[in-house]
């Protein structure tokens, strides 16, 4: 239970601040098996991600997966690694900096905007602790997942709650549950497609590929499937695309169970075999490029489509640092800050120190 540092005190004189914390999934520290193993161990030990009872799952995880997958995943990470690190981390860091700038221009320069990763570093508890030490008495948590899923969004909230469960004097917390239908997010996606078409012409079909989840989670009531469909419909409408010009698919299946269908790669292979010459592929569920988009889609799926007779495969990058997207994100943040914008944050107080001072001065309680 002593996983986290003790909470920092709010000291008198520290100016009160409102914090905004972007949280993404996280990456290993390096594209090596040694770095991928602890990352995968943490990720795949999360009961929100793998919902198999621990006595059944742990021998599989420790006996098979952690002995075989790290080297294979590391080789994939190595193909997309950037000079500054994993693409997911690099983009999340840049998005944070740009968001702080946009919010600053909207008169919110004193917001403390930071980022953390659910798995790997910097961890959610470490960043929350830093934010509290810097006077954040209110914190808006922004899981960087447009579509809510228990395995992603709820897992971030679990981690925040687990951290705060060890704190006596907690900040006020709000969070963004989803933004799958936010007009600014849909408009930025649509413009990214139009920008691509302007430079490269239009393909025969636009494939919107979302990360999959086990089919069972839909049957148990997870709204993820419906939110992916809502995003795809809104995007197709914004682009004025008739039904036969686009398709939604799910990628990144993990394990042997059935996942949400149709699967991305088999769909692309079938399209190529049926004579579709050119596809444009977009991953609207990922606000930042990462292993799953740059390796699985832009490399593996391209190869699969071309090997089955397709002629042109175009990958449309994620929103990353696009101005229209960061502007939309700043709107999402402002909407959720709501009445925090008009009420000053409570002054941070180190109550333990106040009590001691009062005692010294002769107070009896
Ligand atoms: C976009 C939302 C995501 C959902 C939903 C999601 C569910 C989910 N993922 C796994 C297993 C793995 N995912 C991996 C990588 C990965 N997943 C997401 C996003 C979602 N996952 C991202 C952004 C990434 C990329 C991370 C990066 O560093 O770039 C991996 C690790 C890589 C590998 O070894 O393949 C695994 C494993 C499950 C089981 C799941 C739902 C239950
Ligand atoms: Fe994943
Ligand atoms: Fe994958």
From TrEMBL:
Pathway(s) per entry: Porphyrin-containing compound metabolism; protoheme biosynthesis; protoheme from protoporphyrin-IX: step 1/1
Gene Ontology molecular function terms on file: lyase activity
Catalytic activity of the protein: Fe-coproporphyrin III + 2 H(+) = coproporphyrin III + Fe(2+); heme b + 2 H(+) = protoporphyrin IX + Fe(2+)
Taxonomic superkingdom: Bacteria
Location (main, coarse): cytoplasm
Keyword Cytoplasm (UniProt): yes
Enzyme type, top EC level: lyase
Subcellular location as annotated: Cytoplasm
SUPFAM superfamilies: Chelatase (SSF53800)
Positions with a binding annotation for Fe(2+): 211, 292
Entry keyword Cytoplasm: yes
Assigned EC number: 4.98.1.1
Pfam families: Ferrochelatase
Alphabetic keyword roster: Cytoplasm, Heme biosynthesis, Iron, Lyase, Metal-binding, Porphyrin biosynthesis
Family: Belongs to the ferrochelatase family.
Role of this protein: Catalyzes the ferrous insertion into protoporphyrin IX.
Protein name: Ferrochelatase
Organism whose genome encodes this protein: Aromatoleum toluvorans
Gene coding for it: hemH
């Amino acid at each position: 239970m002593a996983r986290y540092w003790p909470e920092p005190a709010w000291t008198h004189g520290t100016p009160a601040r409102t914090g905004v914390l972007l949280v993404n999934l996280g990456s290993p520290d390096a594209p090596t098996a040694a770095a991928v193993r602890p990352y995968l161990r943490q990720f795949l030990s999360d009961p929100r991600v793998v919902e198999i009872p621990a006595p059944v799952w742990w021998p599989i995880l420790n006996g098979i997966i952690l002995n075989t997958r790290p080297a294979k995943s590391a080789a994939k990470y190595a193909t997309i690694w950037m000079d500054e690190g994993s693409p997911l981390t690099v983009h999340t860091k840049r998005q944070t900096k740009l968001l702080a700038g946009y919010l600053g221009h909207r008169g919110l320069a004193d917001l403390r905007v930071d980022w953390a990763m659910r798995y790997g570093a910097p961890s959610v508890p470490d960043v929350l602790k830093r934010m509290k030490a810097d006077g954040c008495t209110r914190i808006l948590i922004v899981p960087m997942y447009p579509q809510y899923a228990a395995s992603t969004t709820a897992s971030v909230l679990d981690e925040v709650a687990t951290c705060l469960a060890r704190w006596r004097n907690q900040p006020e917390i709000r969070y963004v549950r989803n933004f799958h239908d936010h007009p600014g997010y849909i408009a930025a996606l649509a413009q990214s497609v139009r920008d691509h078409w302007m430079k490269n012409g239009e393909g025969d079909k636009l494939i919107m590929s979302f990360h999959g989840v086990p089919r069972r989670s839909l049957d148990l009531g997870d709204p993820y499937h419906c939110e992916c469909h809502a995003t795809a419909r809104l995007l197709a409408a914004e682009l004025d695309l008739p039904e036969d010009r686009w398709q939604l698919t799910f990628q990144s299946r993990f394990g042997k169970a059935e996942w949400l269908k149709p699967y991305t790669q088999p769909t692309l292979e079938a399209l190529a075999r049926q004579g579709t010459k050119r596809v444009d592929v977009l991953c609207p569920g990922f606000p930042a490029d990462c292993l799953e988009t740059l390796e699985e889609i832009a490399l593996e799926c391209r190869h699969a489509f071309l090997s089955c007779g397709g002629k042109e495969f175009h990958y449309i990058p994620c929103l990353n640092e696009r101005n229209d997207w960061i502007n939309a994100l700043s709107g999402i943040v402002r909407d959720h800050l709501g009445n925090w914008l008009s009420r000053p944050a409570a002054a941070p107080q180190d109550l333990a120190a106040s009590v001691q001072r009062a005692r010294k001065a002769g107070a009896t309680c």
